[in-house]
Structures are given as structure tokens and as C-alpha cells.
Amino acid sequence: MASDHCFIVFMKFLALISLFTISSASRLLNSPVDDPQDQLLRYHNGALLHGTIAVNLICRLQDLILIIPLPLLGKQLLDDTYSLGKSLSQKQIVQLASRGDQKNAINVVLTAADVAVDGFCVNRCGTHGSKSALVKGKNYKFAYIWVGNSETQCPGYCAWPFHQPIYGPQSAPLIAPNNDVGLDGIVMNLGGLLAGTATNPFGNGFYQGPSTAPLEAASACPGVYAKGAYPGYAGALLVDPASGASYNAHGANGRKYLLPAIYDPSTSKCSTLV
């Protein structure tokens, strides 16, 4: 059932938040360094996320759009009519994200394998951004993230190393830790976008290059998941002896995940979990 599928994504999401916290990503790039001007990612004097932030999950699976909040939020919104259809523009992604809290929040939109989104599989697997909102007469901004399920559309582009890559060095795909290439791919991409959202939530935080296509905390380390990584090789990952699945993070209830590396300004290198 769609609701069961969305619940599974949500439980993975909760475990991901506990492993890959917003505050730790922000602190990593705020760590003291010898010469900030020599760093790959420059600070552009904008606001970062801090304090209490609600993270809301907006899930579109089959005939369901379900916002499942963390306990911090305490509300749900259900739309079982695919109200915006199965082919979405970026503007419609923002519309969906706007259904969550509009201040002190990150609203995460996940689209199912049968939903097309502008730019998906062409030049992106997900995005993050922000939107202004008027709440009780005051102007606020909320951050949002969108990630698509690439299982049927482009697993070689958005779910590597759990699928054969569509270009570059070819190697055998690894076994996904939750036995679901699409959802494990969502977890990987969501991890990277959470890091980018924490450190560059409003487009003027830590990044390198043009603000319209910034290199951020995780995108500065593409394809790096463990020590020893190089193009076509994700690194020396942990391997589950029972399933043969590759992972680098332990979650709640025995779950295992693959999360991306984050750029560490104190070493000017990509920092991995293993």
C-alpha cells in the first residue's frame, strides 16, 4: 500500500536525521581554520540554520501525498488525489513544499518512481532552496528539499553505486543495504541535500562557484562514500556478512545506510563515516 511505502521512507528519514544532523553539518563548516580564504567553500555572509528546526516530510507515492511530521511539529496533511499530477515543474515542487511549516522549517518533498519532475535525471537527482512566506503579518523564509525516486527513470545516474553507472568507469553495482535501489538512492541524495541546506539554506551561506549552481558541503565530494574512493569506486565500505550489502552508517532498529562524504574545512578534504 502507498501509506506503508511512505511510512518506510519516513522511518528511514528519521534514522537519517539522527545520523546526519543539521546542526553537525553547520558546525563542520563553522569550525576554526587557519586561513578561511584558502578554503574550497567560501562563506557569503548569509544566515545558516540554527536553533529548533522542524523537518517535515512530504511524500508522493502512488495516489498519496502525505506530510508526516517529526514529533516537534505534531500535524499531518493527507492529499490522496495527486492534486498536481504526475509531471511536476520546479514551481509545483515549491507549491508542495509550501504545505509544510513556513518558518523555522525544512520541508522535504519526495517524489515516487512514477512521477516526472523538470530536470530530474537530466542534470539533478534533487534540489534544495528556500521560499519567503508571510506568517501572521511577518516575513519569514523556510527551506525546502526535493528528492526523486530514480529506480525506474535513471538509477545509474541517481542511485550509483547501487546500479551500473550510465557513464564513466564501469564497475559492478553494490547491493543496497535496504534492498531497494530507489529508496536507498533517496537516502543518499537526501543526506547530501540536508548538508547543503544546513550550510547554504538561503543561497548566501557556504559554497563555491555561481550561486545558481553552487558547489556545497556534500556536492564538493561527489562519489565519495568511504576512505580510498576514486572515480568509479565508492571507497572501502562496510559489508553486511549476511546480505552482502554495502553501507557506512548504522541507523535505528538495525537499519543500515549509505551516506555521502562532507567537505571538512579543517583538513580541506572530504570527511567520510568510514
UniProtKB/TrEMBL annotation:
InterPro entries: EXORDIUM-like. Keywords: Apoplast, Secreted, Signal. It is found in: Secreted, Extracellular space, Apoplast. Residues 1-25 form the signal peptide. Pfam families: Phi_1. Belongs to the EXORDIUM family. PANTHER family: PROTEIN EXORDIUM-LIKE 5 (PTHR31279), PROTEIN EXORDIUM-RELATED (PTHR31279:SF54). This is Protein PHOSPHATE-INDUCED 1. It comes from Sesamum radiatum (Black benniseed). The lineage of its organism: Eukaryota, Viridiplantae, Streptophyta, Embryophyta, Tracheophyta.
